[in-house]
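Query structure, 323 tokens:
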């Protein structure tokens, strides 16, 4: 007897190893999944511009990284005692304009370097709704608590979404012709839009992605949304807001994703790397005790062993933490 509708895990025509770089951009779910991989020492850079939800904001973000867009005075605004960029999350905001620009430029250089050498780009779309700033007519990635009356809210059509996704793929191929691109849709419902509008919004994203992957050999789809909605169809897999996946749900989907894209060597590496991470993050009451000193010495030996076993991984930071 079956008790759940399990979503089939995709099988791709490529596999990544533990040393391959990954670049992710998109919604907050992308950050949650990336954090899961970071704890397993996968070389992944997530959301270098902060959380981005809609296709055009992601497109503009990649254009910014590629130098196709230059930030102008129109893209910066002072609100609630801070300077903000309409292309970036509020994590970049600063009391001083120069510090905001400095942080943006530093981040840009690191991000484009990582993206240029990534074997895989994962794009997580959250919504097809966009916000246009009425003063400039530009689509923004973050409203930065500016009154909503200063923006026009609009839902993208399928043709507009497809056009934006095509631009994203072309930009990525220009930056890194050898990369693979996986599109996925965030399982987080945008409930403030209402149940019906959320469903329409997600449907537009899914149909638009389908148009892209039918015509692009290096583009693929991963069913994160379907796994959450169908496979994990129970409120126990949602947080108290009944919208965001629990840590268990993120872990479940992330493990499925790992099975799809990584080879066996990478899976062994991640298991051992996570054991090191867990040990290093173990809460210690007395760092001067004999027991703790034995623990760190044993851990140091384990790290040295895994370094020899997986020579393309750098465990210098982990070794420093045992000293």
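Result returned for the query:
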């Amino acid at each position: 007897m079956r008790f759940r509708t399990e979503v089939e895990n995709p099988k791709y025509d490529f596999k990544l190893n533990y040393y391959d770089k990954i670049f992710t951009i998109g919604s907050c779910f992308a950050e949650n999944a990336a954090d899961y991989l970071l704890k397993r020492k996968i070389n992944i850079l997530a959301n270098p511009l902060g959380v981005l939800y809609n296709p055009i904001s992601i497109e503009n973000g990649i254009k910014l990284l590629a130098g196709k867009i230059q930030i102008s005075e129109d893209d910066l605004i002072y609100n609630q005692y801070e300077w903000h960029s309409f292309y970036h999350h509020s994590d970049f905001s600063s009391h001083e304009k120069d510090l905001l620009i400095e942080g943006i430029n530093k981040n840009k250089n690191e991000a484009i370097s990582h993206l240029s050498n990534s074997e895989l780009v994962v794009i997580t779309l959250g919504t097809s709704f966009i916000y246009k700033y009425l003063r400039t007519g530009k689509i923004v990635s973050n409203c930065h608590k500016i009154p909503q009356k200063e923006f026009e809210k609009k839902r993208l059509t399928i043709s507009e979404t497809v056009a934006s996704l095509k631009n994203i793929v072309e930009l990525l191929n220009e930056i890194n012709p050898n990369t693979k691109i996986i599109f996925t849709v965030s399982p987080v419902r945008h409930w403030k839009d209402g149940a019906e509008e959320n469903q329409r919004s997600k449907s537009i994203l899914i149909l638009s992605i389908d148009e892209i992957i039918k015509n692009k050999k290096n583009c693929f789809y991963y069913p994160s949304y379907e796994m959450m909605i169908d496979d994990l169809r129970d409120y126990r897999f949602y947080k108290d807001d009944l919208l965001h996946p629990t840590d268990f749900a993120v872990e479940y989907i992330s493990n499925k994703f790992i099975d799809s894209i990584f080879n066996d060597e990478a899976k062994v590496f991640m298991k051992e790397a996570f054991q090191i991470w867990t040990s290093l993050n173990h809460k210690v009451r007395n760092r001067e005790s004999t027991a703790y000193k034995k623990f760190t010495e044993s851990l140091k030996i384990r790290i040295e062993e895994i370094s020899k076993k997986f020579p393309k991984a750098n465990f210098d930071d982990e070794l420093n933490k045992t000293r």
